[in-house]
Amino acid sequence: MQLWKLFITALMPVLKVLIITAVGAFLALHRFNILRESARKHLNTIVYYVFTPALVCSILAKAITFRSLVMVWFMPLNILLTFIIGAALGWLFLKMTKSPPDMQGLVLGCCAAGNLGNLPLIIIPAVCKESNRPFGDADICNKKGLAYASLSMAIGNIYIWTFVYNIIRVYSSQIYKVNKIEGSTVGPVSAIETDLENHSTEPAVNAQDLSETNNHVPKQNQIMKPLKTLVKKLNLKVLLAPSTIASILGLIIGVVPPFQKMLVGDNAPLRVVEDSASMLGDASIPAITVLVGANLLNGLKRSGMKLSLLVGILVIRYIALPILGVAIIKGAIHIGIIHHDPLYHFILLLQYALPPAISISTITQLFGAGETECSIVMLATYLCASFSLTLWSTFFMWLVL
Q1: Angle at 22 between CA 325 and CA 38, to 5 degrees
Q2: Which UniProt keywords apply (predicted)?
Q3: pLDDT higher for 79 or 149?
C-alpha cells in the first residue's frame, strides 16, 4: 500500500480525537462554563464506575475466547515491558538532570504509563473503517481490534494502579516526610495521608528477636502473618478498580462456554443484559475524550516546572520508546513467539508510542503532588501526540503490512 494512503489512514483517527478533545475544551471555557469543575468530577465518576467497565466487559465477553486468549499471551508481557523500559529511561533521565524530588514521581509515572485505554479504542476502529482497509474486512477488523484494545486497557489498568500508583506513592511519601518536619502536610485526602504515614514509617525488626519470637509461634501463624501484612499494605480498593473487575468478569464470560451461551449472541436467554452493557459502554469513548479536552485547560496555568523535564518526557515517550518497541516486536516476530496477525502486531507496536495515561492525573490528585505540573505535561504531550501518533502509526502499518 502506498505510504501516502497509509498516512491518511493513520491521520483520520487522530483528527477524530482532536475534534472531540477540542469540543471538551470548548465546553470547559469560562465563557460557556458547561463542563465546570464539579460537572467534570461527576462525569468522570460515571465514566470510571459505569461507562468504561460496561464497555470493557461487553467487548471482552463477545470477542475473547480461551483459544484467542492463549494466542495473545504476549500482550501482557509487552505492556509490562513498556512500563519497565519507560520507567528505566525516566530514572536515567532524572539522574542525569538532577530534577527536584517533587517532580520525580510525576516524571517516572508519565514515562512508564501510556494511554492504553481510550486512544486505542478510538484509533483501531477508525483505522478498520477506512476505505483503504489496511487490515482486511472492516467488521472482522473492528471486532478483533476492539478485543485487542479492550484487553490492552484491562492489563494497562492493572499495571497503572499497581506499578505507577506505588511509584508516585513512594516519591510522595518522601515529600510528605520533608514537609511534615517543616510543619506542613501533603495530600488533600486524609486516607492518602494515612497511607503515606503507614508506608514511610516502617518499624525496624531485629533478626535475633524475630527468630526468638518465631520459636514460640505456630508455623501456620508464621506463614499467615506475612501474608496478612502484605494484604494490609496493598490497597485492594485501588488495585481492584471497576474496569479491572469488569475485565475479569468479561474474560470469564468469554472463556467459559456456558456463560457465553447464556449472555452473548442473538439466541442467548440473557442477551438483554449484554446489550444493555454494550449501550452503556458506547458512551465511554466520547465521554472520556471530552473530559480529556476539558482537563487539558488546566495545563495553561503557570507553573515552576522546568522545560527540560517536559522535553525529556516527550523524547522518551515519542522517540526512545517507539524505537525500542520496533526492535522488541520485530525480534519477537523473528523468533516466532507471536502469531501472524498484522493487526495484532500493529497494536503491540502502538502500545510503545502512546501519550501518558490520563489516570496519572487522578493519582497526582489523590496525593496532592504535582497536579498543575501534571496538567502541563498532559497538555504538551497530547498536543505533540497529534503529530507523533500519525507518523508512528503510518510507519507501523507500513512495517506490518
Answers
A1: 105
A2: Auxin signaling pathway, Endoplasmic reticulum, Membrane, Transmembrane, Transmembrane helix, Transport
A3: 79
Cell numbers describing residue 145: 481490534
Tell me how far apart the alpha carbons of residues 287 and 114 are, in angstroms, rounded to a whole number.
Answer: 19
- Domains defined along the chain, listed by start: 3-186+237-400 (1.20.1530.20)
Eight-state DSSP code of residue 370: S
Q: What is the pLDDT of residues 146-181, one digit of tens each?
A: 888 878 887 887 788 778 888 888 777 655 444 444
Element (H, E) at 65: none
pLDDT average, residue stretch 12-40: 80
Grid cell locating 227: 501474608
Show the CA angle centred on residue 364, arms to residues 360 and 369, nearest 5°.
145
The whole-chain average pLDDT of the chain stands at 77
* Alpha carbons 143 and 337: distance in angstroms, whole number: 23
Task: Look up cell 470548548; give the residue.
Answer: 26
DSSP 298: G
Angle at 156 between CA 116 and CA 152, to 5 degrees: 60
CB 365 within 8 A of CB 192: no
The residue to which cell 489496511 is assigned: 134
Grid coordinates of 289: 475524550
- Which DSSP symbol is given to 163? I
Q: How many CA atoms lie within 13 A of 161 on its CB side?
A: 20
Residue 180: its H or E element: helix 165-182
DSSP 114: B
Q: What is the pTM for the complete model shown? A: 0.75
